[in-house]
Amino acid sequence: MATLGQTPSQTIGPFFNFALPFDSGPSVVPDGTLGAIRLAGRVTDGAGEPVPDALIETWQADAAGRFGISAGFGGYGRCPTGEDGEFHFLTVKPGSVAGRAPHIDVIVFARGLLLNLVTRMYFPDEEAANAADPVLMAVDPERRSTLIAHKDGDTLRFDIRLQGEHETVFFDA
Amino acid sequence: MPNSAHPPLDWPDYKSNRLRHPSRPLVPLPTGMDDLTAPVLGEDRVGAFDADLTRQHDGEPIGERIIVTGRVVDGAGRPIRNQLIEIWQANSCGRYIQKNDQHPAPLDPNFTGFGRCLTDDDGGYRFVTIKPGAYPWRNHHNAWRPAHIHFSLFGTAFTHRLITQMYFPGDPLFPLDPIFNSILDPKARERLISKFDLDTTVPEWALGYRFDIVLGGADQTPLED
């Protein structure tokens, strides 16, 4: 099959906040949804400093493991980071798709990044499924923990370290 | 990166890249492990004047009115239908409406600089806007960004998500811009430069530029239309 040359990526730059974020962006499910979970994290750079101008997007299956928009479930989230580098989403835990460990696809855009970074968030209460997941198994065992969220009270935390110690695993997708 | 169209992760000429690029290589996703679906952000996100950035306020913005149009396709040339395109840009003086833009150029009360539309059945889109100005940034001494419009696109898989910048033909700032030049393949770089198009140009009204966009996804099993 003949393939066309792809359009190259460029940085999102520093001035996207007046345009891309929208009010319901962080709400993958509406407030009050049964079984809703709060997801939060902080984006930090190679010096450990917060990244206040990143945009985080998420995509996931619904609780039954289906992709696509159904009533009360969009599957897609968008949240800019604040001054402290923090982002947050309200969502539900996705079901398993094709027998793989439940996960949320995460894309990071930021000033300074020339192309977006693709990663995945896995769940801490899925030890057996995580241990058998083909994507996690493709990752150096020492780095797998960067892809697994941890519980912090009512919130699941998924911090994203762009560079340096405990650097998050990013995928070539 | 197997895809040489994109800039490298590590590009020190762009100062804010230095502490933000991953230092470890990207991990290849095992074959078949991509989630081959993408959000469809439909008509509920697009308002009547979203595709015409010159009609979002009471008066007309100052500057050179232009039409920007093109098609969004995948690597096999198949149209990306009914998908959201978002654009954002500086005004004709090179100033963004956003508070943290400190460039001492005037704001235009009649220009926000954000537009949205959905692609049609042929992957086509069309915006009416004002040609953005070049603006200074502090990357290095006397650094100026070539005039550009930011584009945000969704393909048929979430991992084909693309944010890029469209440039204008003949800009003298091209050889000096580390962001434009982060694309190492000159042919790929050229793809970000829109083409002046007389057929798109509307007589007595606005110049037209064409900007076609190719997203990822050619290497996957072709889908029947």
Instruction: Indicate the radius of gyration of chain B in whole angstroms.
Output: 18 Å
The CATH superfamily of chain A is identified as Aromatic compound dioxygenase
What is the molecular shape of chain A?
globular
In terms of DSSP E residues, the strand content of chain B is 15-25%
Q: Uncertain segments of chain B of ≥5 residues (pLDDT<50)?
A: 220-225
Integer-rounded radius of gyration of chain A: 16 Å
- The CATH topology of chain A is Protocatechuate 3,4-Dioxygenase, subunit A
Tell me the number of helical segments of chain B per DSSP (H or I, 4 or more residues long): 1
Q: With helices defined by DSSP (H or I, 4 residues minimum), what is the helix count of chain A?
A: 2
CATH C-level of chain A: Mainly Beta
Mean pLDDT of chain B: 93
Describe the structure in your own words:
The complex is a heterodimer of chains A (173) and B (225). Chain A is mainly β and 173 residues long. Chain A has a single domain, classed as Aromatic compound dioxygenase (Protocatechuate 3,4-Dioxygenase, subunit A), CATH 2.60.130.10. Chain A contains two helices and ten strands, in the order E-E-E-E-E-E-H-H-E-E-E-E. Chain A has helices at residues 127-132, 134-137; strands spanning 37-44, 54-59, 76-80, 86-91, 103-110, 117-122, 150-152, 155-157, 160-161, 171-172. In chain A, the strands form two sheets. In chain A, strands 1, 4, 7, 8 and 9 form a five-stranded mixed beta sheet that branches. A four-stranded antiparallel beta sheet of chain A has the order 3-2-5-6, with no helix packed on it. The longest helix of chain A has 6 residues, at 127-132. Chain A is globular. Chain A starts with 36 loop residues before the first strand and ends with a strand. With 225 residues, chain B is mainly β. Helix content of chain B is 2%, strand content 24%. Chain B contains one helix and twelve strands, in the order E-E-E-E-E-E-E-E-E-H-E-E-E. Chain B has one helix at 186-190, and strands at residues 27-28, 65-73, 84-89, 114-118, 124-130, 135-137, 143-145, 148-153, 162-167, 195-196, 207-210, 213-214. In chain B, strands 2, 5, 10, 11 and 12 form a five-stranded mixed beta sheet that branches. Chain B has a four-stranded antiparallel beta sheet with strand order 4-3-8-9, with no helix packed on it. Chain B has a two-stranded antiparallel sheet with strand order 6-7. In chain B, strand 8 and strand 9 form a beta hairpin. Chain B starts with 26 loop residues before the first strand and ends in an 11-residue tail after the last strand. Classes of the chains: A mainly beta (173), B mainly beta (225).
